Amino acid sequence: STVGHSHAEKVMSETWLCPTVLLCVYGFFSSLRPSEPFLTPFLMGPDKNLTEKEVVNEIYPVWTYSYLALLFPVFLATDYLRYKPVIILQGASFIVTYVMLVKAQGVLAMQFLEFFYGLATATEIAYYSYIYSVVDAAQYQKVTGYCRSITLVGSAVGSLTGQVLVSVGKVRLLYLSVMTLVSMLVAFVAPWFLPMASKSLFFHQRPKCPGKEERGRKRARSSLGSLCQAEQEDLESKVPLNTERYPQANYVLGEQGQARGTGVVEVLRILWLDFLQCYSSQTLLCWSVWWALSTCGYFQVINYAQVLWEKVLPSQDFEIYNGYVETISTLLGAVAAFGVGYIKISWATWGELALCIFSVVIAVAVYLMDTVRNIWVCYVSYVVFRATYMLLITIATFQIAANLSMERYALVFGVNTFIALALQTLLTVIVVDTSGLGLEIFPQFLIYASYFAVIAVIFLAAGLYKMLGRCRSQQACQADSGEKVSDSAGNGLADGDTEMGDITVDQPCLQDVEGRGKSTDTLGD
What we know:
Shape: globular
Helix content: over 70%
Structural class: mainly alpha
Strand order of the largest sheet: 1-2
Number of strands: 2
């Protein structure tokens, strides 16, 4: 028995170790992009000779449109094809993107480049979802940490390498693009050796073993809890999702999904039921709203920050340090995200006000980038902006994922990203695209700063409304408690009775009654 148990553990270890290593190799090299911090100077430099208006108003918006258009079809295709083919497609898309960056010329070619980059971005979901189909639930947290951390390391190393080559080696920006292409070619090898997933979240479900599944979920949640101690204190965030209103969604992914088949229509019906159930949670809805709104603004600032820096300090005339800034902001963001687990704050109580305060910090950072127009102020503001966003998005991730199954986890984050992209598309059409206002970069950033200020106002109002509701509840509770004490003294009601005519006293009020009763007895004595 002992030998069999140890053999099973060894097999499981080998099962998750091999695909995790391959994914980490792919994640590192696909994120290793020395040319990334210098993309805008490269496009506007002598190699491509594009104007600011062409880059900002005609080329960059294509990424937003293609990402939005491809996200939902890719989401379904990823699950239907069981991840591996889509990861290979992502690798191929990266190769096409950087081949075109090195060889192609002209606005139309760069627009096609942005389309393929949008495809690569949309297929990123396969990279993060694949591992959940080949490892035990108890390993989810561990392998997710590995896969996400290695991409941050790859991004930081790529940015630092690019900056060192530009500043110290005086390497042309074209050669940075060639190096990035080589990195993509190396990354493209790894996915071919990944084992094909035998199951997926929706289309290809394996018959479940209730006991094993429950043990795995408990261990996974325990692992999540160890990383996010503060969230464990939030009683409101632990309230289960509304399962009475949509009872079908509780079993449709289990027995019904397998019994009736997993066609596209059935999967869409399952997704719709789960969507209604998930967003019936007030806590999840609040954090999801912030996620969608802020991610929209984050994408816009990240996409066009290099254009603003180029306007403030042209790379043709001065030495730029974009690579160092990207490296520092990535590492600080990772540290901030890691430190979330050690922040002991009741997010259920103070979540909205915290989102308000940090949204103000982000708005101020973007506003300083726009108005001061000093490159060092822009760099520092950008670092603050990215680190703050990564801190908050990590908190939002923990809050949203606290009580979700893996199926609903994928659904909620997919929906939130889709809404963020829809908002970003609307913002791009109005502010950036030549079919809209087609504004220059400085007015754009003023609008982005105002956008984050509006987010801060929204969550300030939500926080104040929530605090006002709490105060009213406490006052009503105290009034009910006083009436209960009075009735108990006059009528001799039993200690455990919680009924007062038509008024029902909840547990906190009952505790308050007992406290007041003890206090009254003491005074009486």
